TrEMBL record:
It comes from the Bacteria. The keyword Isomerase does not apply. One of its GO terms (molecular function) is xenobiotic transmembrane transporter activity. GO terms for biological process: monoatomic ion transport. GO terms for cellular component: plasma membrane. CDD domains: MATE_NorM_like (cd13131). Its main location: membrane. It is a multi-pass membrane protein. Pfam families: MatE. InterPro entries: MATE_fam, MATE_MdtK, MdtK-like. The chain crosses the membrane at residues 42-68, 89-108, 128-145, 157-178, 190-211, 232-249, 269-292, 313-336, 356-381, 393-414, 420-440. Keywords: Antiport, Cell membrane, Ion transport, Membrane, Transmembrane, Transmembrane helix, Transport. This is Multidrug-efflux transporter.
Length: 448
């Protein structure tokens, strides 16, 4: 397959996925911006609450990512029945997990208190999480359907559904955060209600499309959905748990950084949240390309075509690298102006927050390359259904290297928030090097 055809196939599949990932991120950015306009304490609570929710979400989302690789490989081998079985049991696992962890969101103030957060901010974060916790099961089910549709290369519909969710989320936020048009002023809890509402509506839209779209209707995805398929369920769990733990290992490094930044100060925590939002917007491009890598690698692996697997990997990694270099330049040049977009100019704390956020973004420019390496390698490895070894690489890089280095640089060595961010760079560099080496030296690239 010529390189130009690889490039075209990746762009056709990837651009809508990147767009939908960016639109999904805009949901979070909208919450952050609008709550930031509402107040600094509310923003700090949103940062903590979102970090807490994200940790639980990433563990469950391993099933959806596993489904993407499994369905892609099944379709590459021409087995639509197995693709249906994997998707249905992926939704089963997502719902069961979402219900099981609901008590952790309901009693989150206690957990946040144990982690050293101030009682006032922890209580406000709990208000947010007691609503948002009910969004976990539908959010994870939506991600499973997203993986199913991506494996079928039906990505444009995902973009349009997510763009609609962004508009609706902003409208509900405007009503409920600030109490406009006679609605109750609910602050951070209003943002949670908006997120729950748009998640449920997005799930319904994706389910209708997956069941009724031409070319997919014959698969009968939801026919006898209530019947368990225990063999497939456990296969999905066995692959999904390592993927989820890998994501948690990475995500928890960033969540731990938010908790440690809370020890530094509320101003720094608010700046940290803004910097993470900005970097995550760019990261969503890499996540979209990583999803493309999973689908394309899974299709090639299922068809036992190692040459197509190798060439496709080279093209998609090169595209991600180009995006990373552009992002580095943007963070250095526009860190402060971007940070100001998240804050009320009349708030007296705004100048301090902008200074810290701009510093953090300068460090974030350095870890762009390492971050894209690890996420692209993970996407490729999921495509060839290699998940357990990358999990241990992630645990080593993030928990045994990244988090300890962030703590040492921030507190014993006295570099504060900037030192904390340099610890993130070190953890990501280790993960990127290990995982890229794993993929390019793997047996899946040998002639089949």
């Amino acid at each position: 397959m010529p390189i130009a055809r690889h490039m075209r196939a990746i762009c056709v599949l990837g651009l809508p996925l990147i767009g939908s990932n960016l639109a999904q991120m805009l949901l979070n950015v909208t919450d952050t911006v609008m709550v930031g306009w509402y107040g600094v304490e509310a923003l700090a609570a949103l940062v903590l609450g979102s970090s807490y929710f994200f940790s639980l979400f990433m563990l469950g989302n391993g099933v959806a990512l596993a489904v993407m690789g499994r369905v892609s490989a099944s379709l590459g081998a021409g087995d639509e029945v197995q693709a249906r079985r994997d998707t249905r049991m992926g939704i089963w696992v997502s719902v069961l997990y979402g219900v099981a962890v609901l008590p952790l969101t309901w009693h989150s103030a206690t957990v946040l208190g144990w982690l050293g957060q101030t009682p006032e901010i922890a209580a406000l974060a709990q208000e947010y999480l007691r609503v948002l916790g009910f969004a976990l099961a539908p959010a994870l089910s939506m991600m499973v359907l997203r993986s199913y549709l991506s494996a079928h290369e039906r990505t444009q519909v995902l973009l349009w559904i997510t763009l609609g969710a962004v508009v609706l989320n902003a409208a509900i936020n405007w009503l409920l955060i600030f109490g406009n048009l006679g609605a109750p002023e609910m602050g951070v809890r209003g943002a949670a209600i908006a997120s729950l509402s748009v998640t449920c509506l997005s799930l319904v839209a994706q389910a209708i499309y997956a069941a009724r779209a031409p070319g997919l209707r014959h698969i009968a995805l939801f026919s006898r959905f209530w019947r368990p398929d225990w063999e497939t369920l456990w296969s999905v769990v066995r692959m999904g748990v390592p993927v989820g733990l890998t994501s948690v290992a990475e995500g928890s490094m960033f969540q731990a950084s938010a908790l440690m930044m809370g020890w530094v100060g509320t101003i720094e925590l608010a700046a940290h949240g803004i910097a993470l939002e900005i970097t995550t917007v760019v990261f969503m491009i890499h996540v979209g390309l990583s999803n493309v890598a999973t689908v394309r690698a899974g299709r090639a692996h299922g068809a036992r075509d190692s040459r197509r697997l190798r060439d496709g990997a080279l093209v998609v990694v090169s595209l991600s690298l180009g995006v990373g270099l552009l992002a580095m330049a943007g963070f250095f040049a526009f860190g402060a102006p971007l940070s100001k977009l998240f804050l009320d100019a009349d708030n007296p704390a705004t100048p301090q927050i902008v200074v810290f956020a701009a510093r953090f973004l300068m460090v974030a420019a350095l870890f762009q390359l390492f971050d894209l390496m690890q996420v692209m390698a993970l996407g490729l490895l999921r495509g060839v259904q290699d998940t357990r070894v990358p999990m241990w690489m992630a645990v080593l890089s993030y928990w045994l290297i990244g988090i300890p280095m962030s703590y040492v640089l921030a507190f014993p060595l006295g570099f504060g928030g900037v030192g904390l961010w340099f610890g993130l760079v070190i953890g990501l560099a280790c993960a990127g090097a290990l995982m890229m080496t794993r993929f390019w030296r793997g047996p899946w690239l040998a002639p089949m």
